[in-house]
TrEMBL record, chains A, B:
Subcellular location field: Cytoplasm
Functional note: Catalyzes the conversion of 3-deoxy-D-arabino-heptulosonate 7-phosphate (DAHP) to dehydroquinate (DHQ).
The species this protein was found in: Cohnella lubricantis
Protein name per UniProt: 3-dehydroquinate synthase
Record text on cofactor binding: Binds 1 divalent metal cation per subunit. Can use either Co(2+) or Zn(2+).
Binding site for Zn(2+): E192, H255, H272
Broad class of enzyme this protein falls into: lyase
Keyword field contains Chaperone: no
Length: 373, 373
């Protein structure tokens, strides 16, 4: 990635707990002054949580900026990858927080992708029953995870099952960090960008379709716009239904099958974005069963292929295991199968009348066609 | 304990999250009908969390009542005692919840003392980011812990450091269960009852003083009245400041020293109520240093002795360790020592200007006089 992009800003509207999202270049080095402007107390130590890969590249810049502004900051580093989203690593971070002397006015910063964000966010939510939290996403996927306040760790039997709603005080999204992202992570990140279009905004889907190449090349202005639009959709939905009583569930498009695939693969084998790309194709096929036509699945598939994302279940996955994993998913109310099903590009509905057999059929199809992956 | 007591009811006033506390005899057997009346869904399984000692005595009654009302209920039993308030046991309960198939509309019931309440409450807070929670306290101390929504587990370095605010949907306090309480637990429980008087209500302190014998004998009507008054004070304070921004901190009278003693003793050696009884004497001595006179300490001590509670630090405790444990306590803001200090019986203030040396002196005194325990 080369060049600069304008700084884009938007607000997640949650009354007293509203917060800004800043998206732009050169932001990491401004962390300290942003903390000062927003009145974060200098006397209370900050815990910077990051992962091994991100630490080497960006932790120094953030810490230096904070120290220049008078803050005390301690670094806690976890292994890269989904396996760190565990209760064990959570406990290690609480130990680090205690040893650092974090107090009730302290802040936890998540510098990294969705793994670091979810994990550090749960630390911020539970430590002393809640301290301040700042998200500094460094992956494309994290445009999704850093907004909305869902934080969690995994349990061996289910993903994200232990968590909280804990909103950040702000989200600082420095596009420069995305230049070092492995190409596979870039592609996986766009799965959630496309998802935000598919659930809410047909025009944005069209724009993604037309700009896929610029996006894959991480062209700053296209990237900034795409992340802004993704965050915008997420913000609107979260503002209207923070605690997922109804509307917010639409954000789970592709996630019922997606989470099951992740669980069966062993966390980390299949990237989250890859798993939900497959899941979104599955949901579009459910739409066909409900009579919304076959084109939706073809169209979804074509778009995701354009972002070089998988659209079939890799061979070797066991259907029974996938079905069983879905039983533990939060999206099942009282034994019924609940799915987010697209009606057309830009609009979805939540159906709680999805026959398990349809899901099984589609899982089988998506496996059977794995050769076409 | 013999006989019946009238059922007393009060409400914790928290807007949409307001809930009732019912205190009386014969309530366990009414659990099922109370769940029905309040619209708890029969399709979603219930997880009944209890400890070994309580299980044998009361779990059957509760389960039978729920089953008769059409509910599915699974039992999860933890070892009795403070050591169960750990992240490991928390994880075991999440596993049990998953294996039971708890869904988003499910309820976690805590049947037991404060340990079970805090632990099961944190499970209810974090499982799927929060499910319904019902408190069924079976100790005197739990009149305090079951009201107000503070839930937590301990870390080896600090007590209650990992937790949440998660209010129950109701509190069902069956006085009959208190008959089987070991005498030492009865006494320890009254420490928090007395605390509620000391921070808020001089007349109630006087009543406790006059009725100590009836209370120690668990005379139903005295007991019902005392627990109602204790819950009432707690409710008022929590209603005005749910998240401990200011007022709620007064509930920590005696807890800064108390928690440190518990941590140094190894959780479980010194009962929570015993530790805070000693802590309240320490706070009253701080009051003397601040010029509020010496009688307060003498008076506090006399009252606590009447309930056969310890008022000195047992020999063998190390002063440095106690002081170090206090550094990890949540009640220290930005390195300063914060204490709840009584001004007179029924009124306290929060002081953030307490010199560490005064605290150390008082700890030393309370140890030095241990012979008079
Ligand atoms: N909370 C939410 O609302 C929400 C929403 C979506 C996803 N999620 C969660 O997000 C997680 C996935 O997030 P992710 O895809 O960002 O994964 P991730 O955090 O594991 O990051 C992906 C990989 O890229 C590396 N990396 C991160 N930033 C880098 C950079 N700038 N340069 C080089 N390498 C970098 C990381 O070390 C890691 O190996 C999942 O656990 C998922 O459940 C949460
Ligand atoms: N959340 C809060 O606001 C809050 C407030 C005060 C205390 N607490 C917590 O409460 C805990 C202490 O609670 P506790 O004193 O009730 O301890 P506890 O839960 O350990 O119960 C004390 C003992 O009595 C046994 N027991 C319980 N009920 C019994 C019964 N009816 N008959 C016979 N035996 C019975 C238990 O098995 C246990 O051994 C501490 O962890 C403390 O931190 C929390
Ligand atoms: Zn996702
Ligand atoms: Zn207490």
């Amino acid at each position: 990635m080369a060049g600069e992009a304008q700084t884009r800003e938007l607000t997640v509207d949650l009354g007293e707990r509203s917060y800004p999202i800043m998206i732009g270049t050169g932001l990491l080095a401004r962390t300290g002054s942003l903390f000062s402007e927003r009145g974060f107390p200098v006397k209370s130590p900050i815990l910077l949580v990051t992962d091994r890969a991100v630490e080497d590249l960006y932790a120094g810049t953030v810490e230096q900026s904070l120290r220049e502004a008078g803050y005390t900051v301690a670094r806690a580093v976890v292994a890269s990858g989904e396996k760190s989203k565990s209760l064990d690593v959570f406990e290690e971070l609480v130990t680090a927080a205690l040893e650092t002397g974090l107090d009730r006015r302290s802040t936890v910063i998540a510098l990294g992708g969705g793994v670091v964000g979810d994990l550090a966010g749960f630390v911020a939510a539970a430590y002393m029953r809640g301290v301040r939290f700042v998200q500094m996403p460094t992956t494309i996927l994290a445009h999704d995870s850093s907004v909305g306040g869902k934080v969690a760790v995994n349990h061996r039997l289910a993903k994200n099952i232990i968590g909280a709603f804990h909103q950040p005080e702000f989200v600082l999204y420095d596009l420069d960090t995305l230049a070092s992202l492995p190409p596979r992570e870039v592609r996986a990140g766009y799965a959630e960008v496309v998802k935000h279009g598919l659930i809410w905004d047909e025009a944005f889907v069209k724009w993604c379709d037309e700009n896929a190449e610029r996006l894959l090349a991480l062209e700053p202005d296209a990237l900034g716009y795409a992340l802004h639009e993704g965050c915008r959709v997420k913000s609107i939905v979260v503002s209207r239904d923070e605690r997922e009583n109804d509307l917010r569930a639409i954000l789970n498009l592709g996630h019922t099958i997606g989470h099951a695939l992740e669980a069966v693969a062993g966390y980390g084998e299949l990237l989250h974005g890859e798993a939900i790309a497959i899941g979104m194709v599955g949901s579009a096929r459910l739409a066909a069963r409900f009579g919304y036509g076959d084109e939706l699945a073809a169209e979804t598939e074509r778009l995701l292929r354009k972002f070089e994302l998988p659209v079939r279940i890799p061979s070797g996955f066991d259907t029974d295991e996938i079905m069983a994993a879905m039983q533990h998913d939060k999206k099942f109310k009282e034994g019924q199968m609940v799915f987010v099903v697209p009606k057309r590009v830009g609009e979805v509905e939540i159906r709680s009348d999805v026959p398990a057999q349809w899901v099984r059929d589609i899982v089988e199809q998506l496996k059977g066609e794995a050769g076409k992956l």
